[in-house]
Specification:
Keywords: Signal. Pfam families: IQ (PF00612). The structure is a single chain. By secondary structure, the chain is mainly alpha-helical. It folds into three domains: 61 residues; 63 residues; 102 residues, no CATH class. It has eight helices and no strands. Helix 1 packs parallel to helix 2 and helix 5 packs parallel to helix 8. The N and C termini lie far apart (175 Å). The N terminus is likely disordered.
Length: 321
C-alpha cells in the first residue's frame, strides 16, 4: 500500500495531487479507470488508422492505380528488397544457431543423410522390381512349355511322323529294305531330323559304331600299358578346359554381343529366347513319344512287306476258248 501513491502518480502525472489516506477500493477503481481510458485511446487510434487505410483503398479503387513518383517507387522497392534480404539473413542466422546448439545436423551431415536416404530408397525400389521380374519370369517358365505343347505340339508331332515315314520310303526305295531305327542312346529320330539323306545317316551310324569300337580298344590298351603319366593328364585337362571356354565365348558372342537391347527398355526377360529354349525341351518330349510310335509302325511295315514278299505268285488262269 505504500507504493500505491507512486502508481497513481504514474497514471495521473499532471494532477499534482498527492493521494494520502485513500482506501484500497478507491485506488483500484482509479487504476481501472485510467487503464481502460488508455486502452480506449489506443483502440481509437487503431480504428482511425484502419479507417484511413480503408479510405485510401476506396480512393484507389475509384481513381484507379495510384501513381507514385520516382522517389516513392524507389523507396517501396528498397523496402521490399531489404525486407526480403533481412528475412533470409534472419532465417540463416536461426539455422546456424540451431546447428551450433545441436538442434539441427550440419550442412554436410544433412547432405550425406539426404544422399543415403535417396540411395536406400532406390535400392529398395530395385529389389522390389527384381522380385516382381523374377515372379514374372518363373510364371513364364511354367506357362511357356504348356503353351508350346498346346499350340505347336500337334503340328510338330505330325511333322516328325511325316519326316520319318518319308525316310522309311526313301531307304526302302534305295536299299530294298526298311532301315534300322536309330537307338535312343544314339539320339533316336534326331539323326533323321538333321536334313540328311539316308546314305548319310547310315554312314554316320557306321562311323559311330566304329568309334565306339575304337574307344573300347583304347581302353583295353590303356589297361595293358598302364596308367598315363600325370603330365599327359594335365595337358589333356587343360586342352579340354580351353575348348570349353572357347565354346562358351563363341556362344556368348553369338547370343548376346550384337543383341539389340532397345527392344527391352524395362529389362524384362526375352520371351522369344525363352520360347526357343523351352521349344527344345518340348521337341525332346515329343520326339521320345514319336520314336515309340514310329518304331511300332516300322515293325508293322516290315511284317506287312515280308508277308507280301513271301506270298507265292499265282499262275494266270487259262483263257477258255
Amino acid at each position: 500500500m505504500q507504493a500505491l501513491p507512486h502508481v497513481l502518480l504514474l497514471f495521473c502525472p499532471c494532477s499534482g495531487q498527492t493521494f494520502t489516506g485513500i482506501n484500497r477500493t478507491d485506488a483500484i477503481i482509479l487504476i481501472q479507470t485510467s487503464e481502460r481510458a488508455r486502452q480506449g485511446r489506443l483502440r481509437a487510434t487503431f480504428m482511425q488508422e484502419i479507417q484511413r487505410e480503408e479510405e485510401r483503398d476506396r480512393k484507389i479503387r475509384e481513381e484507379g492505380h495510384q501513381r507514385f513518383t520516382q522517389d516513392q517507387s524507389a523507396v517501396i522497392i528498397q523496402k521490399v528488397w531489404k525486407g526480403h534480404q533481412q528475412r533470409k539473413r534472419t532465417q540463416q542466422d536461426r539455422l546456424a544457431e540451431m546447428e551450433f546448439i545441436g538442434m539441427l545436423p550440419s550442412t554436410n551431415q544433412a547432405e550425406r543423410f539426404r544422399i543415403m536416404s535417396r540411395a536406400k530408397l532406390r535400392e529398395e525400389t530395385r529389389r522390389l522390381r527384381q522380385v516382381e521380374k523374377e515372379e514374372q519370369f518363373q510364371l513364364a517358365m511354367e506357362k511357356t512349355p504348356e503353351a508350346l505343347r498346346e499350340v505347336e505340339g500337334p503340328d510338330l508331332k505330325e511333322k516328325m511322323k511325316d519326316q520319318i515315314r518319308q525316310w522309311f520310303i526313301e531307304c526302302h526305295a534305295l536299299t530294298g529294305r526298311f532301315p534300322d531305327y536309330p537307338e535312343e542312346s544314339l539320339g533316336g529320330s534326331y539323326l533323321i531330323f538333321a536334313d540328311k539323306t539316308p546314305e548319310q545317316v547310315k554312314l554316320e551310324l557306321e562311323i559311330q559304331s566304329q568309334e565306339s569300337k575304337k574307344k573300347k580298344q583304347e581302353k583295353n590298351k590303356k589297361k595293358e600299358t598302364g596308367q598315363p603319366t600325370p603330365e599327359k593328364n594335365k595337358k589333356k585337362e587343360k586342352e579340354k578346359k580351353t575348348r570349353v571356354v572357347r565354346h562358351l565365348l563363341k556362344h556368348r558372342a553369338d547370343l548376346w554381343q550384337n543383341r539389340p537391347e532397345s527392344k527391352h527398355p524395362d529389362q524384362n526377360f526375352d520371351s522369344e529366347t525363352l520360347r526357343k529354349e523351352k521349344r527344345k525341351e518340348v521337341e525332346l518330349e515329343i520326339r521320345i513319344q514319336v520314336d515309340e510310335l514310329m518304331r511300332q509302325e516300322l515293325k508293322n511295315l516290315r511284317l506287312a512287306v515280308d508277308k507280301e514278299e513271301e506270298r507265292p505268285l499265282k499262275a494266270p488262269k487259262a483263257v477258255e476258248g
